[in-house]
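Hello,

Our lab assistant flagged a job as stuck in the queue for most of the afternoon. It eventually completed. Since we weren't sure the result was trustworthy after the delay, we are filing this so someone can double-check. Below is the sequence as submitted and the structure that was eventually returned. Let us know if re-running is recommended.
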Amino acid sequence: ADLHDELGASIHTIGLLSDLAADSSGSPTELGELHDRIRSETERSGMAVRHCADMLEAAAPNANLEEEMRRSARRILAKLKHTIVVRGHEQLNALPARKRFDLLLFYKECLVNISRHADATEFHTELTATRWQVALAVRDNGRGLPADGAAAIPASLKRRADLLRAHVSAQRPPEGGTCIQLDLRMRRRWLFTL
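-- returned structure --
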């Protein structure tokens, strides 16, 4: 699942960049920049494979969750305006490395879904950690969910939430768009590291 999600985001980004390159055939400068970005993404994909393999072997900690989230947002949804707010850094850093990595993969899957389905121009991310809970909300200003939002939660997000042992929900805010909410209750044994 990790390899699928990590590579899925990279491959999707390469596809989007390729589409942009095809549309930019009349602008050699922009075309060259897009080709450079495509090359960079293919190198990152190779690194992602190695990273997933390393995670499976050593369960190495994800260095900085907020930094990785920002990097993913810039990479996957480069043309969209976005904001990211993170609260509770100490509590996030106290999470087991595996949970931080799974949170990042859940977030990347949200971004890929926005890029594929939302037709959004901007999105906002809030990640809040307390001693008892981690809450992640990803909102976009796209076309929104069908009337039955629960049925619209992508299977990939449900699977990621199950791996985290977290609850995922989807709402259609009054102002439009979609809000994906992930709620992870802290387990008692994680609290001892704070």
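-- support follow-up --
The delay was a queue issue, not a problem with the job. The result is valid. The first helix runs from residue 2 to 23. The radius of gyration is 17 Å.
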